[in-house]
């Protein structure tokens, strides 16, 4: 059972997500919270698998929430779930450790798919978010580390939210081969996780 929490100042958003999650097989709503502090109080004894959080909460920013949460519970996957898509918020959130970034315009079925994808190792993004990331790839390419073509292919799919298994299926290679490429990519980019890699790519421009 995948446990999901929602942290959002808007009551109708909290209630809507809670109903959707509780009505879905294999998912359970851990709790719904109007601000960061009430969420942290609830997470003291146990934390959910997935947290959906607004980019801007009444008491803190979404990326401040992410940093504080992951310091305490590094295995929790955090998805920004927001109405307003701002490029700087995207970069700040990924740098803080967000697993994915979703617009509230997402359909209920796609939201559930994104939750499951994040739980299974993916990094889901809605199309308008992915467009911001891809656009940033095209800037400052001269500053890039030297990556092989296959490493670029793997990195591009990683930034689209693909899990290692899905990258392997797309490129017709094994998951072990994908992990080998990811290890080299992380080394060349001087990062230690997929979150840091996506954040660096988005900020510096890669493709």
Describe the structure.
The chain is α/β, with parallel strands linked by helices and 207 residues long. It has 10 helices and 5 strands. The protein is globular, with a radius of gyration of 17 Å.
Helix count, DSSP H or I runs of 4 or more residues: 10
Number of domains: 2
N-to-C terminal Cα separation, in Å? 38 Å
The fraction of residues assigned to DSSP E strands is 5-15%
Mean pLDDT: 89
Helix fraction by DSSP (H/I, runs of at least 4): 40-55%
Class by SSE composition: alpha/beta
The CATH homologous superfamily of the largest domain corresponds to Response regulator
List how many beta strands DSSP finds.
5
Q: Report the top-level CATH class of the largest domain.
A: Alpha Beta
What is the assembly state of the chains in this entry?
Answer: single chain
User: What overall geometry do the principal axes of the alpha carbons give?
Assistant: globular
Architecture (CATH level 2) name of the largest domain:
3-Layer(aba) Sandwich
Query: What is the makeup of the main sheet?
Result: 5 strands, parallel
Low-pLDDT segments: none
- Radius of gyration equals 17 Å
Spatial strand sequence of the major β-sheet? 2-1-3-4-5
CATH topology of the largest domain: Rossmann fold
Tell me the series of helices and strands, N- to C-terminal: EHEHEHEHEHHHHHH
């Amino acid at each position: 059972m995948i446990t999901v929490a929602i942290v959002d100042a808007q009551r109708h958003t909290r209630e809507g997500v809670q109903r959707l999650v509780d009505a879905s097989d294999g998912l359970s709503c851990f709790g719904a919270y109007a601000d960061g502090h009430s969420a942290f109080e609830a997470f003291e004894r146990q934390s959910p698998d997935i947290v959906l959080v607004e980019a801007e909460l009444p008491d803190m920013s979404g990326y401040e929430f992410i940093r504080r949460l992951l310091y305490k519970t590094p295995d929790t996957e955090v998805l920004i779930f927001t109405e307003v898509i701002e490029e700087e918020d995207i970069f700040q959130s990924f740098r803080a450790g967000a697993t994915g970034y979703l617009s509230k315009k997402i359909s209920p079925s796609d939201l559930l798919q994104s939750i499951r994808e994040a739980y299974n190792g993916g990094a889901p993004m809605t199309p308008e978010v992915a467009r911001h990331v891809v656009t940033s790839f095209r800037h400052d390419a001269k500053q890039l580390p030297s990556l092989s073509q296959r490493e670029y292919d793997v990195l591009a799919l990683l930034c689209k939210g693909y899990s290692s298994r899905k990258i392997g299926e797309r490129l017709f290679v094994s998951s072990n081969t994908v992990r080998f490429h990811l290890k080299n990519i992380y080394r060349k980019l001087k990062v230690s996780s997929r979150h840091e890699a996506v954040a660096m790519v988005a900020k510096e421009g890669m493709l």
